[in-house]
């Protein structure tokens, strides 16, 4: 077969005389080079003969300003960047659809919820919050979960997070919390991290953030994959039906593959090994046809429930436990297509909380009210023109008509004579009192004040409820995360202030963190606006492990193989993993792969340095006696096992691989997660065990409390 030439080489080779004008599918004329590929042109459409050399005087002379092609090319390059999002700068998106289960007409007239089984196109962007565009994926951070549903009555943007509460109760504080978490302004670091003085200074002076702090210090803030996290609308919204009756609603997204997070030490190492871990994961899943899926669930309630609930439903630092008010599935979201171009779609998509279709309305949540101002405003800065709705990713997919016109980069303007209404020319769109958006006529009265409602004052009860709802390993992780973060805080009084807040949440937790930080004596509990903390019932739904998926589907097994490894065992592993709808990746001393026991070749996806075990949910070392001799000399192979063991992963190994477990310090701590694979039956047992995902019982023996 002829060697495939690069497009540039092809251009160079192309004989200019081969260029011909041809008719495209639509009948339009376009130029092609002789080999059928389009001719390179300037942005003005002029064909380019030489894209490698600027126009100059003689071969060694100065460049000429009349070189319009060079100037246009460099001009455009110089202006390629747009301002990154001030928050949620690093994100990754995908296309898909939302499918309604049953009509919700009794609650909402939103068209998207009227017909069972109807599919509506959607675009989702996941993100971290604090880091800039080029930061790493596994920062300890909230994840954005922004969904745009292109309904027949306009775009509905549900701009949520993977945590159901927020740091602050009033939007006016948003610039402060964000300034505090971003790199400290004098030194310009740390990037994408909350473990620094400014963040904890602000937090320790902001008791309303304590509930969110419990979440952000939990494993929720280091998800294994976007595919394994929940999403939340956070605020209370309203559904409004055709009779103009309102029902309060909170939105939840539940991942079909269940929840899963990584260990902190693992997150730190993933960031080095693959800073794009989450985006690669989503890309690979969708490209291989494993389309991630979430159920949209709602909590519906009326004013009576709101009045009787322990907390104010307008307070975004509070949630309504699922055990108190069940979540009902109303539809599903499937992501089945990657954008064709990252910038064009994922970077230019503009989410706005105020994008709601008729039948969905706002509550008075003071955070939501502020967001409704911010999102429109920020798009102008970021996208540079009020015409950002002309971009295909932001344009509605339903008919639309209005008299907005002109502005930078207008792609379409109203046609005809009338660009106003009412007009006498019988032209243009008209209002529609019946079909149009009607705001719910909530009655409002009161003095104009800057005042926080007293019903927002209890900052500790739900923080405690979250903590006591966690399983012991998850509680341990919260203590470890607080200790780690506060150990990076250089100012002792900030650390102590945090411990005094923790005392209002859980004395044992506060004691553990104080001891681990070496704070002695333990400070007094922080003064609280509400003196008595309510002792709420635990809510198991708040734990990741309590309701784990108990299956390996959608996860990844890393198999470290050596020369001469057993073919039958490998085949059994591969078949079992495929049957589980999981993924297998081969790591070998050389990326060229190995020859297995029967002499057949096995290609590898990673060489040992490029495939550390932190990239996998479980690992196997499939070694032969001969192959092991070399591998034992490789530090990366030792780390492969040592890390998998420390991160409480399942480790399968063949007998010749045992010396590697010895080197990794795991040999005298074998447990149910370390499984010798001595035959095809053992493969089956190992694969079955993988459903537990991790052996958290191992953790106390590998990590100080
Ligand atoms: Fe945002 N937020 N936010 N936020 N937010 C933005 O809008 C803002 C808040 C969320 O993938 C910005 O287009 C204020 C809560 C997501 O493009 C900006 C307040 C929740 C995304 C903005 C909040 C979110 C953003 C920056 C406090 C969860 C990424 C770029 C009142 C419910 C969307 C942009 C994407 C982005 C403002 C708080 C979620 C500046 C003022 C609470 C997922 O408009």
From TrEMBL:
Entry's EC annotation: 1.11.1.6
Cofactor names: heme
Region called Disordered, residue ranges: 1-37
A Pfam family of this chain: Catalase_C
Enzyme class: oxidoreductase
GO CC terms of this entry: cytosol
SUPFAM superfamilies the record matches: Class I glutamine amidotransferase-like, Heme-dependent catalase-like
Signal sequence segment: none
Entry keyword annotation includes Cell division: no
Positions annotated to bind heme: 85, 125, 174, 371, 375, 382
Gene Ontology biological process: hydrogen peroxide catabolic process; response to oxidative stress
GO molecular function: catalase activity; heme binding; metal ion binding
Superkingdom classification of source: Bacteria
Active site: 88, 161
Biased composition (Basic and acidic residues): 10-28
Matches recorded under InterPro entries: Catalase, Catalase_AS, Catalase_clade2, Catalase_clade2_helical, Catalase_core, Catalase_haem_BS, Catalase_immune_responsive, Catalase_large_C
Catalytic activity reported: 2 H2O2 = O2 + 2 H2O
CDD domains named among the record's database cross-references: catalase_clade_2, GATase1_catalase
Domain (Catalase core): residue spans on this chain: 41-429
Gene3D superfamilies given in the database record: 1.20.1370.20, 3.40.50.880, Catalase core domain
UniProt KW keywords: Heme, Hydrogen peroxide, Iron, Metal-binding, Oxidoreductase, Peroxidase
Similarity comment text for this entry: Belongs to the catalase family. HPII subfamily.
Function statement: Decomposes hydrogen peroxide into water and oxygen; serves to protect cells from the toxic effects of hydrogen peroxide.
UniProt-recorded name of the protein: Catalase
């Amino acid at each position: 077969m002829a060697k495939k030439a690069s497009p540039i080489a092809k251009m160079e080779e192309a004989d200019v005389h081969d260029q011909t004008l041809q008719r495209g599918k639509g009948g339009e004329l376009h130029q092609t080079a002789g080999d059928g590929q389009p001719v390179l042109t300037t942005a003005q459409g002029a064909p380019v003969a030489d894209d490698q050399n600027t126009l100059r005087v003689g071969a060694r002379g100065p460049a000429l300003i009349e070189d319009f092609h060079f100037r246009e090319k460099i001009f455009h390059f110089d202006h390629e960047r747009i301002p990154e999002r001030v928050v949620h700068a690093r994100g990754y998106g995908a296309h898909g659809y939302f499918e309604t289960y049953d009509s919700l007409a009794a609650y909402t007239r939103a068209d998207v919820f009227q017909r069972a089984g109807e599919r509506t196109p959607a675009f989702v962007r996941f993100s971290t919050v604090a880091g800039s565009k080029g930061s790493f994926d596994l920062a300890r951070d909230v994840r954005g979960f922004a969904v745009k549903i292109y309904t027949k009555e306009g775009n509905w943007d549900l701009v949520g997070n993977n945590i159901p509460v927020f740091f602050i109760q009033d939007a006016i504080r948003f610039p402060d919390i964000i300034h505090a978490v971003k790199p400290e302004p004098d030194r310009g670091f740390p990037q994408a991290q909350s473990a620094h003085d400014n963040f904890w200074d602000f937090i320790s002076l902001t008791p309303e953030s304590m509930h969110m702090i419990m979440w952000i210090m939990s494993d929720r803030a280091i998800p294994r994959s976007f595919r394994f996290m929940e999403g939340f609308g956070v605020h209370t919204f309203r559904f409004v039906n055709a009779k103009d009756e309102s029902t309060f609603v909170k939105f939840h997204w539940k991942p079909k593959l269940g929840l899963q997070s990584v260990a902190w030490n693992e997150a730190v190492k993933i960031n080095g090994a693959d800073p794009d871990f989450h985006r690669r994961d989503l890309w690979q899943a969708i490209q291989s046809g494993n389309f991630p899926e979430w159920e949209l669930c709602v909590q519906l309630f009326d004013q009576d429930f709101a009045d009787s609930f322990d907390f104010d439903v307008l307070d975004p630092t509070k949630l309504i436990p699922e055990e108190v008010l069940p979540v009902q599935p109303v539809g599903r979201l499937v992501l089945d297509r990657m954008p064709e171009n990252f910038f064009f779609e994922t970077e230019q998509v503009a989410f706005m909380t105020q994008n709601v279709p008729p039948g969905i309305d706002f509550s008075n949540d003071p955070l939501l009210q502020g967001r409704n101002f911010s999102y429109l405003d920020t798009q102008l800065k970021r996208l540079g023109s009020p015409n950002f709705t002309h971009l295909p990713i932001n344009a509605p997919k339903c008919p639309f008509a209005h008299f907005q016109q002109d502005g930078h980069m207008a792609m379409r303007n109203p046609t005809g004579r009338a660009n106003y209404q009412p007009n006498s020319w019988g032209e243009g769109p008209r209002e529609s009192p019946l079909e149009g958006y009607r705001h719910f006529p909530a009655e409002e009265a009161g003095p104009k004040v800057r005042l926080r409602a007293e019903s927002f004052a209890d900052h500790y009860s739900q923080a405690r409820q979250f903590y006591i709802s966690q399983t012991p390993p998850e509680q341990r992780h919260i203590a470890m995360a607080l200790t780690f973060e506060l150990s990076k805080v250089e100012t002792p009084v900030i650390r102590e202030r945090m411990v005094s807040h923790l005392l209002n949440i859980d004395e044992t937790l506060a004691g553990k963190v104080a001891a681990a930080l070496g704070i002695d004596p333990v400070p007094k509990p922080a003064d609280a606006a509400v003196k008595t903390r309510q002792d709420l019932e635990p809510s198991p739904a708040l734990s990741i492990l309590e309701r784990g998926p108990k299956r390996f589907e959608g996860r990844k097994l890393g198999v470290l193989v050596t020369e001469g490894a057993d073919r039958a065992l490998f085949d059994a592993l591969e078949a079992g993993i495929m049957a589980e709808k999981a993924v297998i990746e081969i790591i070998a001393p050389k990326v060229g792969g190995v020859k297995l026991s029967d002499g057949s070749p096995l290609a590898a996806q990673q060489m040992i340095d490029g495939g550390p075990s932190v990239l996998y949910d479980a690992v196997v070392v499939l070694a032969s006696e001969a192959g092991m001799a070399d591998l034992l000399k490789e530090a990366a192979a030792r780390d492969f096992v040592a890390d998998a063991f420390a991160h409480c992963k399942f480790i399968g190994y063949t007998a010749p691989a045992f010396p590697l477990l010895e080197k990794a310090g795991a040999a005298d701590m074998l447990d149910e997660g370390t499984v010798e694979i001595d035959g095809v039956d053992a493969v089956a047992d190992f694969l079955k065990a993988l459903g537990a995902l991790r052996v958290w019982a191992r953790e106390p023996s590998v990590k100080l409390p």
